[in-house]
Amino acid sequence: MATSDVNRGAAELAMGQSPARRNAGVAGQYLSLGLLSVLVLGPIGLTVIQALSPPFRYVSAGRPLHPVEVSWQDRTWFTGGPLSVIVRTLIIVALLAWLQKVASGVSWRDKAYLAPSRIVAIVGGTVVVAAAMSSVFQSFFEADGNTALIVAVAMVLVAATQVWGYLSSPKRSPAAAVVMALFTGFGVIAFCIVTMGPTVWTLAWTRYNLGPAMGRSLVMTVCVTVLQVSTATMAAYAFVFLRFPFKRILFALFMATLLLPLEVTLVGNVATIRQLEWTDTMQALVLPFGAAALGTFLIRQGFRGLPPEIRDATRLDGYGHWAFLTKFAVPLTRPVIAAFTVISALSAWNQYLWPRSITESNAFNTLQIQLRLASSSEVANANQAIAAALVAAVPVVLLLIAFQRQIIRGLTAGAVK
Q1: How far, in Å, are 87, 336, 405, 413 from residue 408 at the CA level?
Q2: What is the DSSP string of 70-103?
Q3: Domains of the chain: residue spans and CATH
Q4: How far apart are CA 350 and CA 339, in angstroms?
Q5: What pLDDT digit, counting tens, does each position of 173-198 carry?
């Protein structure tokens, strides 16, 4: 009996201490994540500050941790053209929807974030942001001394629209919902002020002609990525599931192309493009990168991990090579293919040497060439070049956000047995 009483007392003591330990562990995790976020986002914040501040005045002020003499636009939410209004409105809708999705603790497929309370929060928050930011922008432009009050009121109004949506989650207490709503109001208004209020973003976009350059880079990136993923998938399938003479030797020669950097074949490829009279054309930007040995290797490794029983069963069911590839092989190796898709897109988006070598007219410059021209401009407008670089990084950030789960699955595939 004495032993059982001691064990029962120890269990009760452990149960009594577990909530405190759990809370301490959670607090430690959040503290660690907060410190890591500061380390990661800190340089980005400093870059944004440099983009908003004229360089000479910023250096004269001792490079402070805040923007110096920011030039604000005289605008409302609905100025700047229909496309600009639609884009910024969709950004706020997507941001609020993502926050409501995170608060609900479900995935996009579950669609629990589309509950009536969350729909009201998303739509109401967007309307309040559109109405409040006009006053905020005008206050910043006129420097009327009421900016702090107007910004605080805007943050509270946005927070008020989000409380109901956060309260609809059963895992959230009222106090936690209010705190999250306040952080949402602060973050959304601060995001709008930094990204939509200063004139440097508009100046960088128009002065360096980023729109057409970004469009060409986007078309080139999409075409190169589609071609590389398609050719790599089919080549990997052939090297794994098909039988043909000298397969291993051909694969070794195929992989040997990874040892040849772009600079080695640059002169010959440029001469070929000029002979074909493809200078300043999209096919010259895309076709030389239509296949990638790295993608073939990665997807081949993914295909080799498929159990042979799957191929045998599909063969007995009458599936041919194309049906097996599209219905079984590709879906089962989707994380690997998605990871290579991101690698291919980033590589195509950041191309500079090849587009610079086969373009002769500035009207056909890609984004990276335009950024090079911006960085070589006069020092007095160096902050505009920094702003242009930040604008060019937005598609990359969106790509990484869209494929973050697939990237993690692709990198961790095979790590757990």
Answers
A1: 29, 10, 5, 8
A2: PPBP---TT-S-HHHHHHHHHHHHHHHHHHHHHH
A3: 1-70 (no CATH), 72-197 (no CATH), 207-412 (1.10.3720.10)
A4: 17
A5: 788 888 888 999 999 999 999 988 89
